[in-house]
Write a structure and sequence with these properties.
mainly beta
Length: 310
């Protein structure tokens, strides 16, 4: 299971679309406890409209397990927070034998077959996705898995692997774009410098994508706070200026603020939409989400998983 951790196209783009997401909060402990106490009327939770499209993305999303590429956490995408809390022992037998492709930020890592279920390693009072072993997975670490044939990879170039000149150009572009995003929420961060925590680039056809995880900090000894901005920008391959097409901002205390980790990028075979898989990390847990390019210059969070953690 992934823990909290320390990224596309534009045709005739003439305007900037900014999309702010405010629905990525961890559920309260009280809500989770109350949900667990409710009577269960069926042995299998009924699916809800979470935004996941099975015909496009497959029956489940796999998450890599740190230090063990032959294991996977199985995200049941049609469950929301309350349904997962009521039904912690999810049956995954239907996935046994399914061929999957495993992705990371660099693209396709390998392929495997889903094998057998194992008990999840969750602490008392915590919620975790079921776990299954993989047959044929190589030794290389991977981040997410989809049913074979459903997603093609889109490799991401990370800031760490860029030349010094490219790194400087990317960080300058992201700082410029971040400064133009309208101020929201806590105005205490206005005027503070931006720091690029993570950055990625990708090219698809004649378009280029820039993804940034950008941070501002208030270093007050009694109340240190942080602002995290996930920003996506596009430009034509022959263009010189990126334009922001998506942003999602989170602010809070240093210990509790939501963080974002970009896990992989790709394109759905059915429909051709480009997607990012991201993990939203909280103080004691996380949830996974898909951010999709719906139309020219229009991106949005299309699906969020249920929250897992303590």
């Amino acid at each position: 299971m992934l823990l909290r951790s320390t990224n596309f196209l534009i045709v005739g783009f003439t305007s900037v679309m900014l999309v702010a997401c405010r629905g990525d909060k961890a559920p309260s402990r009280a809500d989770s406890t109350a949900s667990s106490a409710q009577a269960v009327t069926s042995s299998v939770p009924l699916p809800v409209n979470t935004g996941w499209e099975e015909i496009q993305a497959g029956p489940a999303l796999l998450l890599g397990v740190e230090d063990n590429p032959a294991m996977a956490s199985v995200v049941k995408p049609m469950l929301n927070d309350s349904l997962l809390a009521r039904e912690p022992a999810l049956n995954t037998d239907s996935l046994s034998g399914m061929s999957v492709e495993l992705f990371g930020r660099t693209g396709l890592i390998g392929s495997a077959q889903v094998a057998s279920a194992v008990a999840p390693n969750a602490g008392e009072g915590c919620i975790a996705w079921p776990m299954m072993t993989l047959s044929g997975a190589g030794p290389k670490a991977w981040q997410v898995g989809f049913r074979k044939g459903f997603v093609t990879p889109l490799p991401l170039d990370s800031l760490e692997g860029m030349t010094p000149a490219d790194s400087m150009s990317v960080t300058s572009d992201l700082a410029r774009l971040a400064s133009a995003v309208p101020a929201e929420g806590d105005t205490s961060f206005q005027g503070l410098p931006f720091s690029v925590r993570k950055a990625y680039r990708a090219t698809s056809g004649q378009q280029q994508l820039l993804i940034g995880d950008i941070v501002r900090k208030i270093n007050e000894e009694a109340n240190p706070r942080e602002e995290h901005l996930l920003l996506i920008a596009e430009r034509p391959r022959s263009g010189s200026q990126y334009s922001t097409v998506f942003h999602s901002r989170a602010t809070g205390s240093e210990e509790q603020v939501r963080t974002t980790d970009v896990l992989a990028a790709g394109r759905f075979v059915n429909g051709g939409r480009i997607l990012l898989v991201v993990s939203f990390g909280y103080e004691n847990g996380n949830r996974v989400a898909l951010i999709e390019r719906m139309t020219d210059s229009q991106w949005r969070i299309s699906w969020r998983s249920a929250y897992t953690g303590c």
